[in-house]
Amino acid sequence: MSGANTKHDDTLFEMLKECKTLPNFLDAIFGFLNRRTDFYHIASDPKAAVGLPEGLAEKIAQSAFFKWKMKPPETVRPDDIPADGEEVIISDEVMEEAANSSEDKQTAPKLPINSDCQFSKSDYYNGAAFDNYCWSQTITDVDVIVKLPENVSRKDLNVNIQTSKITVKHKENTTLLSGEFCQKCKANDAIWSVDNGKLIIHLDKSKEMWWNCLLKSEPEIDISQIDCSRPYEELPEDAQAKIEELQWNQERKRLGLPTSEEMAMHKTLEKAWNAEGSPFNGPFDPSKVQFS
């Protein structure tokens, strides 16, 4: 159908494959609207900033259904679609968002993304990949990679990173990435660079925790399925010391030598052996001591 927006087709198709059936897919879509938007919230006042007037949510869903229904226009009953002249009051927030979207479409020509730029699995390790960007994470930080139009340099970009949100725009006012983080980051420590047609952003998390999405508008990942191991250099000093001790002890056992625990025990026994009034005679001999 002409005028179709295919930007999210790949993401939605992957979602459909996971859901396996259309009912499950639609249930996930409307469940998302219920959890993350005010789609199901009925506004108590027409001018309320949150919620929709009663009945508007159903009309929006119905209108979208008939918009894409593969039927000649004359087969659709007039009362199936909201009348053009029907007065509907929508919150100021929704109107502002629609106005901004319209302005972007008029003033920001779509730039072709570099088709040679592809994401590898390591680029979205413990994260997710989408059409134009991907993200990965450790327990302490997040890395974001954004595909850029051809021949774009650092000076062509406006990257605005705040504690709770991010906006990446081309100098021609084309938005490449925008949204609210699912958790807070240390905005002052953010680092970004441009390399091989990609914008690479590094963020430090405000808290050590696993993120189930980068932006709140994304589908959540199952954090129970991610790799929760931590690189050795990111472990606390006491944890690193313990690992080194375990490795040293394993090597001592392999060579038939006493471990650190056995050496500490021998030292304690030797002190007791040589103490005044000790029942033992002669030099300390650990072979005469039996360990249980």
UniProtKB/TrEMBL annotation:
- Gene3D superfamilies for this protein: 2.60.40.790
A Pfam family the protein falls into: Nudc_N
> What's an example of a GO molecular-function annotation for this chain?
unfolded protein binding
The CS domain covers: 128-215
**InterPro entries for this protein:** CS_dom, HSP20-like_chaperone, NudC_fam, NudC_N_dom
UniProt keyword terms in alphabetical order: Cytoplasm, Phosphoprotein
Intracellular or extracellular location(s): Cytoplasm
At the top level, the lineage of the source is: Eukaryota
Q: What processes does the entry annotate via GO biological process terms?
A: protein folding
Q: Which GO terms describe its cellular component?
A: cytoplasm
The record's comment on protein family reads:
Belongs to the nudC family.
- This protein is called Nuclear migration protein nudC
